[in-house]
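Sequence and structure are no longer studied apart. To make this concrete, we show below a single chain and its fold as tokens.
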Amino acid sequence: MTILFRILRVLALFCLANYLLVFTELVPLGGWPAGAALIVLLLCYLAMHICPRRAKGATRRLRALLGGYELLLVSFLSIVATGALWIALWLTGRLDMFLPGAPAWMPIVVDLLLCVPVTGLLIVNGFFRVLITCKRLRVVWRALLLLAWWVPVFNLYLFYRVLHAARSEYYFECGRLERESVHAENEDCRTRYPIVLVHGIFFRDWQHVNYWGRIPQTLQKCGAALYYGGQQSAAPVAASAAELKARIEEVLAETGADKVNLIAHSKGGLDSRYAISCLGLAPHVASLTTVNTPHRGCVFAQRLLKTLPAGVIRQMEGKYNAVFRALGDEKPDFLGGVRDLAADACAAFNKAVPDADGVYYQSVMSTMRSAKSAGFPLNFTWRLVKKYDKQENDGLVARSSAEWGHFLGSLSVPGRRGISHGDVIDLMREDIPGFDVREFYVGLVRGLKEKGF
């Protein structure tokens, strides 16, 4: 039925956009029939603008996205049909039947005077629907669609890229919403103990710019009792662990729970291990899941600390500390945090901080396929880790460095994309084909529930 309606929409748009040619030469109606046809076509055209396509059960954003996709697709097919019509008329020598005696190019120009605004308005409608709602469409394609939709041949490729992005996102999101609904109904993330998300270095758990992207909202919908570690953005492990301990004690007091489950990303995993083993939190932690944590340190970070001039390091430290002090950190310590991530520092840390009995430790890792898998600075640091650690990595952490306790494996996707250090926590809110980050965390928490945590 959808295909039939689409064919009717394309036919209506094609006839309206090429009205002068269609109803004066190809299908001459004359008089009232031609006027009635125009009224019908205008009504169909208005209906396309208002309700391009129905999408039962979808969210408002997805309905708008699908509508934009439909408008762009119908416009694209109408443009193709118009081009094919003119090519057919030119090949059969019938261009002169429309405006007899005029130059060969004149009929096309006259037809375009109606075709361009009629089709263009539909494209603008579809463009803004997709522009506002499509998260997969990059800025460059948005700009090209706005500026070059009318350029012959190139617009075919342009429409293909935009339509592919919109369609892929719509069906991906619909599938995800359906799975999320099942998880929510079954309360798959309602664990025995509350979940505490522990962030890594150089970030904070801001309320309006969540370090964990769209993950917390999904987990809460599926039943999770969720809290944040709340450490400062950069500090030595011991200092961050002390802040984390205080926060966990608050969570225990607020919830009345005996223990918590910690899910920690990057340096947050080291902060958590220190708090558990050295600050007496072991009896109050059921499990620790580390995500892309450099348990064995970063060789490249150690090399940079030894190679970069002291003046450059002091300048970086001063600027970083000033910015995050203004953002709310009481004692930001850029250099103290980075030094604790060096390979030698982590080797000493692992000897001094053994795993605590009674706490379940597990870890997971992700890897980038190439430097092109992420933007700056991870595209730069990926090469450094590859050079010094000589391993596949996520742009900051080598795979072997992230393995701790029960290793759940290394996450990646087919092709050249890979999953970066930021992708694995949904930092950029980007949907990666082949990897649903929200579904991954639902599975992670569901696994903790199944283990009785």
